[in-house]
Amino acid sequence: MTPAIRIINARDPELAHLLTRQFSFREEEAALVGEILSAVRREGDRALCMYTARFDGVELSPEKLKIETTEQEAAYHQVDGGFLEALRIAGDNITAFHRKQLLNSWLDLNEAGVICGQIIRPLARAGVYVPGGRAAYPSSVLMNVIPARVAGVAEIVMVTPPCKEYDGGINPYTLVAAVETGVTEIYRVGGAQAIAALAYGTPSIKAVDKITGPGNIYVTLAKQQVYGQVGIDMLAGPSEVAVVADGSAAPAYIAADLLSQAEHDPLSAALLFTPEEILAHRVQSELARQLPLLPRKEIAARALAGQGAIVITADLEEAVELVNRYAPEHLELLVADPFFWLTRVKNAGAVFLGHYSPEPAGDYLAGPNHILPTGGTARFSSPLGVDAFLKKSSVISYSRQALEQVGEHIIKLARLEGLDAHAKAVELRMGEVVK
Questions:
Q1: Which of 39, 106, 144, 209 is deepest in the core (most CB within 10 A)?
Q2: On the CB side of 236, how many CA atoms lie within 13 Å of its CA?
Q3: Same structural domain, 298 and 333
């Protein structure tokens, strides 16, 4: 029987391939997205309805794009009380965490009388994309909307695909999450066409300043193509987890955590780095035992076979070095002293410490955001947070005396760069003759 996951050595040439990921797509996918963006920009709501019928099988008129209050209220009768309790606990934790991220405006007055500083302002209007169809992703609603709300964004717009199974509506669990978190407008439109509407605006959907939230390859390509017209959070790729484990780790825990990511998508990645060869084989056996029990076992099996591996390292030091090269979305340190090894971690979207901090705790309830950099981009980017919905403006104020003290230096630098008008703008204020 073929093992669910392969075991390799840290010096195996195959490891370099596993550690290197890049955002990839087919040219025809990018071309289709470009066509959709152009059509929505040109035809507005008509194009939104056309593509919704084509891709989602739902016939809509422009008047039906927006989810009205009556539909929002009806969704509460379709969800159970246990869900609402869990959602509100998660929402409280996520809100408390993100409030600590708030930035303050500040001004600094130096001895020369110069005032410099920065002012912090929220974006006026943010767009949130939530995957839809038959699936329910209320956690994505929380993770996108709460940071925007904490930042002070006045208008938070959510788009999500409609579903035939809900008579052209959206999943009630997703809808209730949107209401609970304070979304101000909700539209039943998904895919690249929804991104186009948020970026360019249509008669029904006013354009936003920034778009956040994960989606399929068409949504991701659309975000890439509209960047510059609006801001975006990141280009999200397949989910991934890296586990560093020593002999103190339970094989069953490791296997379960690898599978929790593998079940997302056939392209998801799940890697274990350990110097313990016996542990490696026990985890391999646990995966073979647990995998057949999963409803999404086919998806998880393809992910483990394609992007999964157990890597035998010389020691924990090498394991962490490899993780820093990999820069995973999620990193679990299932070791005896996780806080010590945390000091060695340089690149990871989120780090989970100890044997009782499984990655799903971060996905749903802990508080930190689960929208994380993927594909190695944790080398230079961060989780979605409040700062994604804030912008900074610099503030500069000179008195005449302060300008006169440094004016010659400004003039010197301006003329060195060949910008004479810059120099003369300072000379005028210093009372010198303009030549």
A1: 144
A2: 23
A3: yes
3-state SS, residue 11 = coil
Report yes or no on 434 lying in a domain. no
127 and 142 together in one domain: yes
Closest CA to 332 of 314, 321, 320: 320
406 contact partners, CB below 8 Å, separation of at least 6: 112
Tokens of 305: 């076979």
pLDDT of 86-98, one tens digit each? 999 999 999 999 9
359, two tokens: 């990655």
Question: Residue 153: which of 120, 131, 189 has the closest Cα?
Answer: 120
Q: Which of 204, 232, 260 is the last residue before a domain boundary?
A: 232
Burial class (CB in 10 A: 0-12, 13-18, 19+), 360: middle
How far CA 415 is from CA of 420, 423, 431, 434, in Å, comes to 6, 6, 18, 14
The answer as to whether 372 is a domain residue is: no
The number of domains in the chain is: 3
Point out the residues that are catalytic: 329-330
Residue 296 and residue 212 in one domain: no
Secondary structure letter of residue 292 according to DSSP: G
Q: What pLDDT, on the 0 to 100 scale, is given for residue 23? A: 74
Alpha-carbon distance of 365 to 357, in angstroms, equals 11
Q: How far apart are CA 128 and CA 136, in angstroms?
A: 15
Please report whether residue 303 resides in a domain: yes
Among 164, 199, 232, residue at a domain's last position: 232
| Amino acid identity for residue 408 in this structure | E
Q: By residue range, what is the domain housing residue 153?
A: 27-232
CATH of the domain at 161: 3.40.50.1980
In 361-390, which positions are buried (b, 16+ CB within 10 angstroms) versus exposed (e)? Answer: ebbbbbbbbbbbbbbbbbeebebbbbbbbb
Question: Is the same domain home to 75 and 187?
Answer: yes
* Residue linked to tokens 């990921």: 21
pLDDT of residue 134: 63
Pairing status of strand 390-397 against strand 115-122: antiparallel
What would you report as the CA-atom Rg of the chain, rounded to the nearest whole angstrom? 26
Closest C-alpha to 296, from 264, 269, 328: 264
Q: How confident is the model at residue 113 (pLDDT cuts 50, 70, 90)?
A: confident
Q: Report the distance separating Cα 197 and Cα 29, nearest Å.
A: 19
What pLDDT sits at residue 432? Answer: 56
Written as six digits, the tokens of 283 are 């985890």
Q: Are 103 and 136 found together in one domain? A: yes
Tokens of 257: 């955590």
- The 10s digit of each residue's pLDDT in 401-418 is 999 999 999 999 999 999
Torsion of CA 187, 189, 193, 199, to 10 degrees: 20
